[in-house]
Amino acid sequence: MSRPLLLLVVALAGGAGAGLRYALDRLVPSRGGFPLGVLVVNVSGSFALGLLTGLGAVVAPEVAAVVGVGLLGGYTTFSTVSVESVLLAERRRWRDAAANLVGTLLLAAAAAAAGVALGGLLANAFR
Questions:
Q1: What is the distance between the alpha carbons of residues 13 and 2, in angstroms, rounded to a whole number?
Q2: How sure is the predictor about 5, in pLDDT bands with cuts at 50, 70 and 90?
Q3: What is the C-alpha to C-alpha distance for residues 54 and 91, in angstroms, rounded to an integer?
Q4: Model's pTM, two decimal places?
Q5: Distance CA 61, CA 59 (A)
Q6: Per residue in 65-114, pLDDT tens?
Q7: Confidence of residue 31 (pLDDT cuts 50, 70, 90)
Q8: Radius of gyration (Cα) for the chain, nearest Å?
Q9: In b/e form, how buried is each residue of 95-125, taking b as 16+ CB within 10 angstroms?
Q10: Could you tell me how far CA 12 lies from the centroid of its own chain?
Q11: CB half-sphere exposure, 85, CA atoms < 13 A
Q12: Where do the structural domains in the chain lie, given as residue ranges?
């Protein structure tokens, strides 16, 4: 695939990922104003990117770019976590703000690690 075409496909996949993020965020109800949908998006996206990374050489570089950079890059969002945490803090909901920041970091990192481990196991099974 040519570089200009790959760029276009990555950009389209990013738009699709952003649409998926919006849809899932609307489907998952907030709990008392806590942005649960964004948490679900970032944890599931981290797992998926970890899985893709763990698959490594089994996945073509173009596919990794489209899915990893495009789709999952558009799907996950650190900026929304930041804004939601600031908004919670402005409402003096310190515990929720801290839980959003720290919880997202810890859960997303654990999900990514689990995805990498599973991807590695699956990659070895395909070899």
A1: 16
A2: very high
A3: 40
A4: 0.93
A5: 6
A6: 999 999 999 999 999 999 999 999 999 999 999 999 999 999 999 999 99
A7: confident
A8: 16
A9: ebbeebbebbeebbeebbeebbeebbeebee
A10: 17
A11: 17
A12: 3-126
